[in-house]
Amino acid sequence: MLGLAREGKPIRVVDDQFVSPTYTRDLADAVARLLAVDPPGGVYHLTNGGACSFFEFAHTLFTQAGLRPDLASVKRADRPSKARRAASSLLRDTRLAGLGLPPLRPWPEALRAYLAERASRGASS
Questions:
Q1: Quick one: 92 exposed, middle or buried, by C-beta within 10 A (0-12, 13-18, 19+)?
Q2: Which tens digit of pLDDT belongs to each residue from 72-110?
Q3: Is the pLDDT of residue 115 over 60?
Q4: Domain of 77: which CATH number?
Q5: Is 124 a domain residue?
């Protein structure tokens, strides 16, 4: 997305498909904390807090990055794809608190941290 914005290309992103964005560093830290408490088996959904549409994520990304691309929202029906995708891929963490572990931070805060890390590395796309 950042590369497209810098290329000046119009960007069209679906606003009716929802996700739980998760920063991989936060995920890795949460998995390490989880393994340290030796939890019982089972499934754990580890995601940064909150949810958003792909459009909301893109808009927040560009705002935080200080970019103003030609961004517009579209519906999934307007972007046909051979891949079948659910309208909602939301995950909810319901088990960390029961182990006394803190939840992952909200996704906009994690996104800000990611962009700061990228900037410190001098990433350009």
A1: exposed
A2: 999 988 887 777 777 788 787 888 888 889 999 999 999
A3: yes
A4: 3.40.50.720
A5: no
